[in-house]
Design a protein that fits this description.
Chain lengths: ~600, ~575
Amino acid sequence: MTTVDLATRGPSTRSHDADAESGQNMARLLRPFASRFAVVVILQVVGAVAGLAPLLAVVELGRTLLTPGPVDHRHVWFVVIAGAVGLFVRLLFTAASSGIGHIVDGQVQLTFRRALAAQLGRVPIGWFSRRRTGELAKVVGEDVSAVHPFIAHAPGELVSAFVVPLVSLIYLLSINWQLTLITLIPVLTALLLVPLLMLPARLREQEEYDAAMGNIASSVVEFVQGISVVKAFGGSERAHRRFLTAADAFVSIFSRWVRGMSAVAAGMQLALSPPFVLLVVLLGGTSMITGGGLAPADLLPFLLLGLGLTAPVAALGHGFDDMQAARRAVGRIKDVLDVRSLPEPERPVAPKGHRVELRDVRFGYDDGHEVLRGVDLVLEPGTVTAIVGPSGSGKSTLVQLLPRFFDPTHGSVVLGGADLRQISSRELYRMVSFVFQDVRLLRASIADNIALAVPQAEHEDVVRAARLANIHDRILELPHGYETVIGEDAELSGGEAQRISIARALLADAPILVLDEATAFADPQTEQAVREALATLGGDRTILVIAHRLETVADADTVVVLDNGSIVERGKPTELLARGGAFAEFWQSHRSAIADEIETQDGALQGDEHR
Amino acid sequence: MIRLLLRVLGDEYARPMRRTVALMTVTAIAEGLSYALLVPVLRALFGDTPDDAWPWLIAFGAAVAAYAVLRYISDLSGMRVGTTMLRGMYHRLGDHLARLPIGWYNAGRVGDVSVMASRGLLAALGVAAHLLAPFISALVTPLTIVVVMFVFNWQLGLAALLAAPIVAAIQIRTARSTAATDAERHERDNEATGRVIEYLQAQPVLRAGGRTAERFQLLDDSLRDIERTSRRQTLSALPGAVGLALTAQAVFTGLLVLGTYLALGGNIGVAEVLTILVLAARAVDPLLSLSDIGGKLRGARSELARLESVLRTEPLPEAHEPIQPDRHDVEFESVTFQHGDRTVVDDVSLIVPEGQRIAVVGPSGAGKSTMLQLLARFYDVDSGAVRVGGVDVRDINSEVLMSRIAFVFQDVYLFDGTIEENVRLGRPDADQSEVRAAATAARLDEVIERLPGGWTTNVGEGGALLSGGERQRVSIARALLKNAPIVLLDEVTSALDPVNEAAVHEGIEHLMKGRTVVMVAHRLRTVQRAARIVFLDNGRIVEQGTHDELLGRGGRYADFWEVSAAGSGR
C-alpha cells in the first residue's frame, strides 16, 4: 500500500523543500503503526507503574510494623498480596509491551525495506553508476536494522527512564520534600558533569575518531582488494603497513578520547551508583531522624524509590551510541528515499517508429565538467552505428543516454518523434535493450533469467533466444536444463553469463539495441554469439554499438568518431578511411598493432620450431 | 565468552585480562559487602536509639569510598586493557590477512573483511570492554547480597539463594535458543542482501519487464523472511526475559511473604526484615538487567566468533628449509586442484623450458587462470606438484618465489597514490632512469604526458581515475620494472579498446622478451606465436602443440580458431 502511495505521488513536487518532504516520507511510512506504538507505550506505562507496588508494599509493611501497638494481621497480609499482584501485573504488561514492540519493529523494518526497494526501482539508473551496490544493499539491510533501538526499545526505555521516576518523585515529595531534595543531590551532581562531556576538545576528539575509523576502513578495503597485486609484487609490506598505521592512529585517538571521557564518566557513574545514592539518603535521613524531623518509617520509601530517581540521567548515557548510529542510519535511509526519480511524463507520448535522434546533446556528471559537448546524431532504423574513440571520449556516457540512465543537461534525445522525457519509462525500456558490462545473473532458474524482461514469454521463445545466443546446448548440459537455478544447482562462467544476457536481450526483442563490445567478449563463443545475434537481428532494428573490433567497425553502416565529447568524424567506414582523418589514423594504429604481431609471430615460429 | 575472547586474543593478553576480570569481581563483591553495613544502620534508625546509627553510617561511608576507588581502578584497567587489546587485535588481524592465501579472498570476502577489520573489531572488543563490568557486577553483587542476608537470617538467605540455580539455568537456556535464531537471522540477512544486490544490478532488465519492487517476488520474499525470522527471534528470546523477571520477582515476593510471616511471629526483628527487603530490592535490579546485557554480549560473541574463524584459517605453510631455484623453467606434474567440490584443474602435466612461451587456451571456466595462480602459489595443489627450476613451489620461500614472477592480471588494481608509486611497486629500489625506461617500454609515457599532474597524478582508489587500458599500461610498466624471469599474463588484452590494445601489445612484447612466459588468452591472434599452445577444457589438457600442428589436427583448438576467425571476418 505504501509503495502505491509513493508511486502515485507527483514526482515533480519532490524537488521542493526536500527536508520537510523527507520528514513526511518517514512519517507517512510510520503512520499506520501509530496505534500499535500507543499500545506498546500504554502497556509499558501500566507495567512500570505497577512495578512500584511491591516497593510501596514494603514501605507500608514497615510503617505498620514499626507503629507501636498490636499489629493488624489482615492489613499486613493484604499489603503483601497487593505487592505480589503489582509484581505480576508488571511482569505481564512489560513482557507484552516488549514482545509487541519487537514485532512492530519487524513490521516497520519490512515497510522501510519495501519502500526502499520501491524507491530503488524508480531512481534514475544512472544514479546507481555512481554508487556502490554494496553500500545501497547496506542501507536496505543493516541501516534499516539499526533503526531497531528507536522502535523496539525506545518506548520501554523512555517510560522507565521518565514516567517511573516522575511518579516516584511526586510520591516522595508528598512524604518529605526536604529529604526528596537531598535524594536528588546525586542526580544533580551527575547532571552538572554532563557539560564536561560536550567540551570543544571532546567534540574534536569525536570527529578525529570518526575520521580515523574511516581511514581504517578505506585502508583495509585497499589492502583486501589489492591483495593479489600486493602478493604478486611483494608489496604486502606496504599495504599492510598502511593498514597497521591507520589502526595505530585510530587506537591512539581512541584511547585519547576514552581518557578524556573517563574521569568525567567515572565521576558520573559513581554519583549515580546505588551505594553512593544510599549513602546520601542515609546521611540526610539519619540527621533528620536524630533531629526529629522525620519518622523512621518514612525513611523506607527513600531507600527503596530514591535509587529510581537516577534513571533519567543514566538513560542519557545508556544506548547513546546505538541511538547515534540509528540516527546516522535514518539519515542514509532518508537520503535514498529523497532521490528524485527522473520525472515521468504526465501525458506519455507513444513513439512512432524507432528512429533515434540526438539533438545538440550536452551532458556532464558534475557542474563545470562536460562529458558530451553538443552531440548531433541520427540513428536510422535498420542500420548499425559504430562509435569509436579513445577512452574518456564519452562513448559510454553517450550510449547510456538512450535507455535514459540520465537526462541530458542540454538538448534532447528523440525516439520515434518523441522526446525520451515524454515517453513512459515502461515503454522506453521495452523499446531499448542493452547488453552492458558486469552481467550478474539472478539466483533463479535459467528460464527466468532469460525471460526477465518478458515475464510472460513462452518457453519456445526462451529456447529460441538461447539458441540464437549460442547457449542452448550448454543449458541442456546443466542438471535441470532450463530449470537449473543459477548459483545453487550450477555456476556459469563469465562468458556463459554474457550469453545468457544476450539471450535476454534477444528475447526482449526491442527495436533498439545498445551494445558495448569490450565487455561482451568474454571468449570466442560469446564473440561469435554477439556477431550472429547482430546479423540475425539486423532487419529493421536500430543498433548502436561501442566498437572495439575493426571487424565490427568495417561492417557498420555508419561510423562515428568521438573525441573529447564531440563527434569529430562520421560517415561510412570506407569513406572515412579514404578521407585520411582521425578515423583513418585510428584504423592504421590498430592495423599496425596486429600486423606487428603477425610479423613477429612468423619470426617466432621460424625461431623455435621444436616439439 | 571470556574464554572465546582470550582465545581470539591469544596468550599475551590473557593475564592482564584475567587481572581486570578479577578486579571487577572484587569491586562487585565490595559493593555487595558494603550493603551489610546497612543492617546495623537501619536497626539503629528503626530502633529506639537512632543516634547509634552514626558510627555505622561513617563506616558505610568509608566502605562506599573504598568501593569508589576500586571501581575507578577497575574501570581504568578495563579501558587500558581494552585499548591495548584493540591495538594487538588490529595487528594480529592485519598480519594474518597478509598471510592468508589469495584463494581465500573472493568478492564476498572484501566486504566482510573490511567491516570486520574496522567496525566489527571495535564492536567485539568494545562491547567486551564496556559490558564486562556491568555483567560481572550484575552477577556477583546479588550473590554477595544473598550471602549477607544469610549471615543475618538463614531462612531468608536460603529463600533468596533458591533463585541462583534457576537464574543460571535460564541464562544458559536463553543463550542456546537465541543462538539458533540469531544464526538463522544472520543467514536471512545475508540472503536478503544478496537479493537486494541482484535487484539493483538487474534494474534495467527488471524495469523493462515492468517488475517493480512489489512485483519482484524473489526480493519481497526474502524481505518478508527477515520479518518472520525477527518475529521468531522475539518469541524465542521472550521466555528467557520473562523467566528471569519471573524468578527475580518470585523470590522477592517469597522474601516479602516469609519476612512478613517471621516478623509477625516475632522470630525476627522488624528492622532486620525491612533491611533485608531493602537489600533484596537492591539485588533484583541488577538481575533484571542481566537479560539485556546478556543479549548484547551474545551480539559481541558472534562478532568474536567470526573473527576467530578468520584467525583460524591457516595461511599456506612456509617451507622449513627453503630451497632457492637456480633455473626458471616451469613444470606442472599431475596437478589436481579443487575449489570447493569442483575439480578446477584435473591431472595436468606440463613443462615450460626456460625462456619459452606457452599459451593456455580454452573456454571460460576451463581452469586457465587457476593454473597461473597455482604457479604463483596463490593456492596449493591438492595433489601433484608445481615446480620452478625443478623445485616444488612449496619448498621455495614465498618472497623468493614472488621475486621470480611478474604477474599481469586482466583486472588491474592500483593503489591510491601517484602513478610513480604504483609503478615503483615493481621494484621499490629502482632508480629514476629505470622507472622511466619501464614506462616508455609500456607506452605509459604517452598516458603520463596527457595527465595534468604527470608522474605525480593521483590514480584514486583502485585506479578509478584511469581507464582500463591506462591501468593496464601501469601494470605492465610495473612488471617490466620488476624484471622477473617468469612472466604470467592473464587475459591481459581481452577488454581493451583498439588504441590501448595496440599499446599494451607493444608493452607485453618487451615484457616477454627472453623470459619464461605462461599466458592465458582467448584472442587467438595473441597466442599464435607461442612456442606451444595448450588447450584446456574442464581442467584437463585436451590438446597441445604449435598453432600449425593444432590447426592441422582439426580438433578443439581448430574449432576454436574457426569460430574466432569467422568472427573476425577473415
